[in-house]
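**User:** My hope is that you can spare some time for a protein that puzzles me. As I understand it, each token names a local backbone shape. I would be glad if you read both lines and explained how they fit together. The protein I mean follows directly.
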Amino acid sequence: MTETWRLGRGHSPIKGGVLTLAFVALFLVHWQVSVFLQTFFLHRYGAHRQFTMSKGWEKTFHLLTFLVQGPSYLNPRAYAILHRMHHAFSDTPQDPHSPTHQPNFFKMMWRTKLQYEDVKYRRVPIEPRFDGGYPEWPLLDEKLSNMTIAVGWGALWALFYLAFAPHWWLLAFLPFHWLMGPVHGAIVNWAGHEIGYRNFDSDDNSKNTLVFDVLTMGELFQNNHHKWGQSPNFAVRAFEIDPAYQIMRMFGALRIIDMSGAQKSRWEPREARTTRAGAAAVPPALALPAPQDGP
């Protein structure tokens, strides 16, 4: 079937090989740019406001997120509200996406989808502490964010692959192009609370899954992030690398964003934390009464 697909398009083996590499590169670039915009714009900026930027740059990144995520564009308001709820209720029954209480991966994501749609379409009341302070653009978030537009985006991806892909197996990339935003969220929400190590003790099950998180641009440092929720740098130890933060440092140097007032995450060895906590737990000595002269 592969040979028939390729020869039917008149590709030589060399040209077919180059085109295959080009499609693989396209998929990887789409993955990385999409996950960067999700962590940088939707998460660190929209949900947490870990840094500031001008309205012009906010609109620029808002539009880029819409164009890059395409058929799986995530509404910034709904994303921010659900994420704030996740931090408030992490790994409790009220958490919108906890593998601890939804042990089936697909059930967890289906529950998240239903809650996301309830928030996006304003079907449920929102607690004031979770509302406000997120980017809004009604044209993109409401008028151009619907099933018809999503199907149109998906059809464009499919037609492009059908027209130019040199091998049939490359069509396996299509579902990821269609669902890029939710796929990234699913990986982080599941693996980030199921697989990895912990730098900090917490009441939830958050973990750091990768030490160099090129897969989700730093999002899999969940344990660090739940400890330092307002820090734009999700890495805290010398061997940990948060790729998105490195790009953000460049944005800061170019004055695209301002991180000068951001929280600073830091690592403290467990032994030092234990010693400090123990010292704090020792009650201060009682003051002795002053000596009295005479009876």
